[in-house]
Amino acid sequence: TILSARIKSTFVMAVALIALMAVASGVAAKPAESQAGGSVVAEAQSWLGTPYVWGGASRAGVDCSGFTQQVYAQFGVHLPHSSQAQTGYGAPVWNAGPGDLVFGDFGWGWASHVGIATGDGWQINAPYPGTVVRYDPIYPQYTVYATSIF
């Protein structure tokens, strides 16, 4: 019904807003999460400088979801090669800690980008064609979701 669709839409927007506020707040992660997340961040750092290649998923070139897919594969986690599909993996978190996936919407109306949070308001990501895997701020105005895989 129309009412249940509105309630669902309002709930989804509220959860997204709460997640956005938590990402921006910088609350510390639990020690066990930090240890696993630190290992993920270290692996992500080893990809710095890898060229952005649309559809890429190797050291020769990656796109955003190919990058996160390859990093997490090193830890036995098999993610799909799609930022939107990756939103279904892990547990939603209020605050993105080291190693968490951070999803952004840059005007498409869905999670069109994914990066790996470093835990200090920054992420490592493959942003767009013509760039390389690099550090970028987690932009609260574009961040719509964050999940913790570990």
Please characterize this protein's 3D structure.
- This protein is of the alpha+beta class and about 150 residues long.
- Helices cover about 35% and strands about 20% of the residues.
- The protein has four helices and eight strands.
- It has helices spanning about 1-25, 30-45, 65-75, 85; strands spanning about 55-60, 60, 90, 100-105, 115, 120-125, 135, 145-150.
- The strands form two sheets. The chain has a six-stranded antiparallel beta sheet. A two-stranded antiparallel sheet has the order 1-2.
- β1 (about 55-60) and β2 (about 60) form a beta hairpin.
- The longest helix has 24 residues, at about 1-25.
- The radius of gyration is 15 Å and the shape is globular.
Name the strands of the widest sheet in spatial order.
3-8-4-5-6-7
Structural class: alpha+beta
Largest pleated sheet: 6 strands, antiparallel
Number of strands: 8
Helical proportion, percent range: 25-40%
Average pLDDT reading:
83
Beta-strand residue fraction: 15-25%
Low-confidence stretches: 1-33
Radius of gyration: 15 Å
What's the SSE pattern?
HHEEHHEEEEEE
| End-to-end CA span | 37 Å
